[in-house]
Amino acid sequence: MKQKLDTTIEENQLLKERVDVQSKDIKVLKGKMQAVLETNAHLTRRLDTVSEENRDMRNILITLLDNRDADVHVATVAFSAKLNGGLVQLGQHQTVGYHSVYTNIGNAYDSRHNHFIVPEKGVYLLSFTGVNVDGQGVYLEIVTNRNQIAIVYCSLTAHSMDSQTIVEVLEKGDVVWVRHGYGGPAQINGNDAYPYLHIPAAGLIEQWLLYDIKWEETDVVHEKV
C-alpha cells in the first residue's frame, strides 16, 4: 500500500513539472503572438504611409504633365565693363568707376554708380582683373553689400596684373561692386595700350548668371541658363 502511494506521489510530481513546462511554453507563445500582432500593426501603418506617398507622387506627376507646355521663366543676366584712359587714382575703399560697358544684358549693371544690382536670387559667376602702376602695389576687392567676397593684389612689379573668378550665391537686391581694398591711396592702370593683355584694358569686371534659384515649398529648383 505504501509503495503504491509513493508511486502516485511521484507521478503527481512529474505531472506538475510537465504542467509548469507547458505553462512556460504557453507564456513564450503568447509573447511571440504579441510580437507578431505588433509587427502586423506596424506594417499596416507603413502600407498606409506608402499609399499616401504614392498618391502624392501621382498628383505631382499629373501636375508636371499638365504644366509641361507652360512657359518657363529663366533670367538672362550678363555684363562686361572696363577701364580706359590712363591712370586712375583711388582712395581708401573708393569704388572703381569703369568707363566703358560693353555688355549689359538684363540692364542689371548700373554704369552711373558702377554697381551690379542682383535682379533675382541665383548662382552667379563673377570675374574682375586689375593692373598696377609702375612701382605701386594695390589691393582691389569685389564686395557684396560692403562685405568682401574676393580680393586681388597687383604687386610692385611694373604692369603687375591679378584677377579673380568666383561663383557666389546672391540674393535679389544684393549690390556688388569693385573697390580699392586697403593700404592707403593707390593708382590702377586704365591704359588700354598693352597688347599682351587678352582683354582690351587693364581693369575689367564681368558677370554671368549661372542658375536661377526658385523656392517651391521646401525644395530648391535650379534652372540652368
- CATH class bucket of the largest domain: Mainly Beta
Mean pLDDT: 75
Query: How many domains would you count in the coordinates?
Result: 2
Radius of gyration: 38 Å
The major beta sheet can be summarized as: 6 strands, antiparallel
Can you give the helix content as a percent range? 25-40%
Instruction: Let me know the number of strands.
Output: 13
Secondary structure tally, helices: 1
The helix/strand class is alpha+beta
How much of the sequence lies in strands comes to: 35-45%
Per CATH, the architecture of the largest domain is Sandwich
* CATH fold category name of the largest domain: Jelly Rolls
Low-confidence spans: 192-204, 215-225
Distance between the termini: 107 Å
Topology as a string of helices (H) and strands (E): HEEEEEEEEEEEEE
> What characteristic shape results from the CA principal axes?
elongated
GO cellular component, one term: extracellular region
Pfam family, one: C1q
InterPro entries: C1q_dom (IPR001073), Cerebellin_Synaptic_Org (IPR050822), Tumour_necrosis_fac-like_dom (IPR008983)
Subcellular location: Secreted
